[in-house]
Protein 1
Amino acid sequence: MLIQQLVNGLTLGAVYTLLALSFSLVMGILGILNLAIAELFMIGGYLGFTLITAGFPLPVAVLGGMLGAAVIAIAIEKIGYQPLRDAPLVTPMLSTLGFSIILQNVATNIWGSDPAQLPDEYFGKQYAFGPVNIGEMQLIVLVATVVLVALVAYIVQKTPMGRALRAVAENREVARILGVSADRLTMLAFILSGSLAGVAGVLIALHYGTITPYLGVEIGLKAIAVMVIGGTRQIWGALVAGPLIGIAEVLTVAYGGSQVRDFVVYGFMILILLLRPQGLLGGARSDQGQRV
Amino acid sequence: MSRIKSNLPRVLGTVAAVTLSAMVGGQAWAQEIAIGAVVPSSGPFAEWGRSNTVTLKMLEQQTNDAGGINGAKLKITILDDAAKPAQAASSLRKLAGDEKVLAVAGPLTSSAAEVTFPVANEMKVVSTSQASSKPGVAKLNRPWAFRNTIDEGVLAKTTVPFYKKAFNIKTVAVIFDAKDATASTVGKVIMPAVLKANDIIVANENDLLSFNTGDLDVSAQVTKLKALNPDGVVVSADYSQAITVLREMKRQGLIKPVVGATQLISSAILKAAPEIPVIAPATFYATMTGPAPEKFTATLTPLLRKESGLPKDIEPSMYDANIYEIVSMYIDAIKKTGVTGKPADLEADRTKIRDHLAKLEGFAGLGGPIGFNDDGDAIKAFYVLQGQNGAWDTKVKGCSSAPGHPAC
């Protein structure tokens, strides 16, 4: 049972990792917490779900979820972030919170509050390794997470676009003087983050075979905890902290009870904030996220 | 003379106003009968709230098309509580205080009822829940609180013996939603006690499994359930949460018969894992036979399916039937007890409705006659249903009172 629980924990951790990465792209680079990301994840999931049930193949569903979430991310940047960029820090965050509530309401109105369920034929194969069961979608989620984290790390660390993003993160004004279009890169960070959330939503919805408009809130808060634990500015931090929290959560539920689950997850986050605010993979203490 | 002439229109206007006012004041009934409803049109139970709203609008139109109530038009004011207890309580306060309604249908959940019923007592207005079934919620808030539902403890006493016999159950494992008041009580208290009384061993008696409302991942709990290898599984959660558990059971290959409370009854749960039998009690279900339920379903179904935000294949739920019956009972009380609906009679009218409900016996409900016991809970017939391969099938008929009661 322990090995099965570890597999369960790794899958759950992969969910958190993908979403934490979405949060940290905007948080680490632009220094703001885009609370609407959790709902982009949910909308991406619904779009993927809709495409799959309409008979489209998985790659089209992933692309659809990604594009849909990216388009909404552009709207959030244009309406909810750009005009408020120079306002006090809490203002754009509240604006994204507003977007988050609106998106949840829109999803409830379009798809209803009942869980949408994937028909049986889309459940995917199950592979049994002795007492351990692993589903086809579970494997896809785990592989996709590693690939996406590596891809984002490559983009941010090795490409000219990534260097420009990091320059904006260090000092927006200096980056502008050096010829970097801060506005264009801000938009890019939102698009990247939204796309990632959309992909994550599609994969997760298909893995569990069910989705509700309230999916984003619960998983989104955990993903924020994962981002903090891994280090808001460390792309690889999410890949370490996600599975760590996923496994801790699953083992707590299995051997302690779900009533202490959130205590463990958020307690760990508070401990990290107190003892190592730069996160597990953060280097110097000064490497901590600039603002939340 | 010229002064009188110039003032004539004003004088005539005043006389006309006084006459009209006297005529209205002298009438036996108001022009409009105001009833309130508190339903969750947003939030996690929005589906139920929205279908409740369509049901009430249908009843309002049916009543007014049939000439109203003693000639007065029925007006149902519906407020959304988003399934939040505080919002439900303030909605009832608004309906009773500002809208001056004669009685309120709702709130839906036990969590909301626990907070709203004391306000109903304070405001001296009848409040009848359409779904709350946690034991003792109305009993604690007499005399103004009622529930058109049956205590889950009563239902479990008929459901569990059938479940045991039908599937040869000797052991079960329990999983429940720890954040839902009814689910938590059923999972932690009612089911373990009734199972024990029926000589069924609860494999995780000292380690009942739980999850929280909104959880999508219940893989850890289901892995643990599977390791216990029970003959059956008790899933105590509302159907939308139970779907998550059933899907995960299916994913992990745990195909065992499931038993639960009224919260499981829905058409959506039948699609979650059609091969897993689900046993649950209900007082109404969409495929119920008989003139009243068939007419109700036939009239309401197209209206529900036309409503935006509701699934295209939705069917009337037990809670639609319950809220329809609640307002129908209010209308019955208004007609039979001389309720006027006039502002001056508001307090007396509300008391008449309360007293009528308290003594009600044999009201013609959709699933059979309805009355209320001293705890404010409905005495009515119920059915133990088995859901499998996409359909609910009636297995046992029961009654929430001793045999011989008019409602049985």
Note: Confidence is low (pLDDT under 50) at residues 18-26 of chain B.
Protein 2
Amino acid sequence: MPSSKNTLPCPPHLWPQFSALLDAALDLDATARADWLAGLPAQHAELKPWLAAVLQAEGLIATADYLQGPSLPASTDDFSPGQRIGPWRLMRAIGSGGMGAVWLAARADGAYEREVALKLPHAHLIAGALKARFARERNVLAGLEHPHIARFYDAGLADQGSEHPGQPWLALEYVEGLPITQYCTQRSLDVQQRIALIQQVASAVQAAHARLVVHRDLKPANVLVTAAGEVKLLDFGIAKLLDDDCDAEAALTQVTGRAATPDYAAPEQLAGGAITVATDVFALGVMSYEMLTGAKPFAIRSRLGAMGSERGEAALASSRAARAQQAALRGDLDAILAKALEPDPARRYASMEAFASDLARHLAHLPIAARRITRRQRTVKFIRRNRAPLGFAALLLLVLGLGLGGVLWQAQRANEEARRAEAVKGFLVEVFKASDPRIASDTPRGQISARALLDLAVPKIKSRFADDPPVQIELLRTVADLYRELREDARYAALQAEQLALVRTHYGPHHPNILDDAVEQGARACAAADAVRCTALQAQADALLKTAGDTSTERRGHWWVNEGLRLQMDSTELPAAQQAFETAVALYRQGAPQSRGHVTALMELAGFEQVNQRLPQSIVHFREVIALAMTLPDRNDAELQTLWGNLGIAHQQAGQFAEAGQAFSQAADYAERTTGADSPAAWGPRANAARTLHLAGEREAAHREYARLIPLLPPLETLDRDLATLYQNYGERLAAEGRPLEGLPMLEAAAAFLQQQAPFEFAPRLARRLLGEAYVRAGRTTEARRELKAALDAYLANDAERNQPVMAVRESWGRFLLGQGETAAARAQFEAVLAVAEGRQFAHIALAHGGLARVALAQGQAAEADRQSAAALALWNQVTGFRDVRMGPYLQRIRAEVLLASGDLAAAQKLEDEAAAASARFDDAQSPTVQRRMLKLP
Amino acid sequence: MSEITQLIKAGSAAGGVSSEALFTAAYPELRKLAHSRLAQSGPMTLIDTTALVNESWLRLSGKDTLQVETRRKFFAYAAQVMRTVIVDLVRERQAERRGGGDKALTLNTAIGDGVAVADDEALHVHEALESLGAVEPRLAQVVEMRYFGGLTEVEIGEVLGLTERTVRRDWDKARLLLAAMLK
């Protein structure tokens, strides 16, 4: 009978190396092994996952009792119906296992009628000193009375002189039911019904926690659901008393075996760390995840062999669920499960109650605690989500309870503010209560859109508070902000103007609201790249801040950010722009380090450095801003997504694919968490992650990502800027791996679109280059010549000769000309690339050397061909910055041709074979590059 | 002189022990011993292989005082025999339970599922050793002697001509590999 137990933990051909490395690991102290593994030299990369998987079990060998000796399954004839065990008469066996048997039993003396499940652990497991422990545990369990916990009736030892002297027994409530996961599937429960079951489990576990008992082994098999739909929690067999002393703990562990079922065990449990209520939260999190998605959150990763407790974060629940369930899980439930499954217990829900409460809030459509969202964002999120009519009561509750929380809090500061807050609150209550005749009569009773309410509020603010400017200002600013968040720019501008006019008459020209607005207006003009207005408004704001004698570092920092945006529009002012951003960052760092403005300033600085190819600095600043943004109290996940995405691009540009891939997947996770997997915000990071994998040669992984992404995209006929870039990159990758015919329609559509509407200044010419290269691969030379030439001309007109993109297009054009037999023209292009190489180690410089080697071969200049082809390969091995692994085999084949021409067939064939093997990994099976050629001497 | 001792002596004289003959002789004896032991043990099912092997040695070798060399060889073989005996017993017991009409469980049977010893662990170790023996013959032998034969680290060291420390390292490494295979 074939069995997986026969499979060695490492393929036999790698065994000798694997075994030697394992010896080395075992010579180390157990605590040093994770570092040792992480620091394994690259030549052992292939062995790493196998080693990790094996070392994962090292906890087992630390204890002497693993594989202590063989045991036999309990024989069924150990017990038989009618026998007495203590006060019980056995009726029928309902189960048995390595630890003992379970029988249905009744009281022999008829003291009560109820049948019980009688657990009969093997006597040797509860021997000696452990008997005391057994008795103590009995008392704990007996105290756990809860409708959703299977009752523990009693426990004891059979009398000496009876049939099974000294046999321990535990009498438990007999539950007929199905494991919770099976119940869900069998009854086809919907998401809400499943959540209701999870809540029952949570309440039972909470009850145990209240008695300082942690279950430690929550899993579907321990949570049964009866035919009546009642959850029953079983088996506190390995439960732990939170106040236990060490000895008792050790004893209990011995009785019950080491760990709980690993699938449901929390990281701290696997690592032997402190067990707390958070351990149960984690297990219920895993179970909930399984119930809601049908998949276990960690199965795949742990099998890949992450070390011990480092399972990392679970994939978003919605991304693992069947299509039909995804919408229901996206957002709140994703966030709730992610919080329950936090690897760090301190970041998990602090109690079962908190977990259950978030589930209840989700069911009631209330904001949940799992995402740290500020009050305002919460309100805005709510309103935005509810442009459609919504429950009136829910809206009222939200705006009053949360939207005004800040105002109410401030009220404690001063009577004047308290008065104002009361007035504001009273007004809003009134607005939301009013039944207004202007609301269309077909609106269902009790339902009205949030937007309609805001519209109704504005005229009332003006009429009602005409004689109370402070309240009017407060309300107008609040409502204006809400419009801005709803992206109703015209309404925002109008209300903001009214508000400022009021402020000016009431408080004079130097009120903070007016100063803020001056800087904000500059920001808008500069961000829109409107140079003339930006310059004018910046000067105005500067003058205003000076006359007002303003000392706010935050406001001045904001002004300097705008100044940087203004200066970077002029290519001669780039050093000044850099200084402006640095000044802004310095001001924030000194005066307002924990502010949103600090994030913006750092982000602009990092972005500036990225665009200007200062990649190492850019990466440092992106990492700094990400760290900062994560600690801000009003963490903005959309912003973090952008930051991770930009960091990924910077790493990709620097050729650091592993780091780029990590950053992109962080971005994708944030996007999915905030907006869901099939929302446009998640497409970009997913596409970037896929492209990075593909560039790095991880073709299969890349296509797995693409397979998830591409079906979600709108068709080519409905392009927008983001979509065009995305299709362009996908088409380019398809062409690069030898499928130009599939890539071309995307590249053509994207190029046509990007000539009209470009997200970046360089996008139109880049599109033409990529399209041209795909035409070359498809053998469509006329179109290829047209596009590549146009791209080259556009680059030369707009970019500096020494910049990498210009070198790239020149090399492409040269390669095309060479293919057309125009050797002299090709050579000129390659030489132009080398002329500006300046000792840099870019991929396109290596390619230009390769091009010159081909030129020399064609012209019969053996020495030159040898020199150039060797230089190409040497440089390729040290390339920094952007590259596509597919360039490697191309250069190897050039070198092979050169060697062949010099008569060294063996060396040539060896290189050719290496190239073909590499291409077979990187390229499509249909690509001509994957064919291994048998070389012949000329 | 007992049958076993004769076999070993004859084997030594012929330049090597006929393991097959030794095996044939030792097997029924060990099996009988194991059975009677288990019948006495009631609900306790952990097999004390050390005691079994020692006892069988005493019985099989009779009253002869044998050379240390012979004793070592016997232990190596006894471990092999015990492995077969135990695997057969486990299979028998499982068949018996299946025949007994075990139903789907309505109550979780575990008084701890993550328990030290699983029912079929011995079978799995047996299967895993077959693969492991192909790439790490010495490790497989150490496991066989220690797990199935109940030999101590010192005894295994004597039999295989290794230091106690090496045996312990082999044992740890083998357990690590088996843990991965048995997962």
Note: The mean pLDDT of chain A is 78.
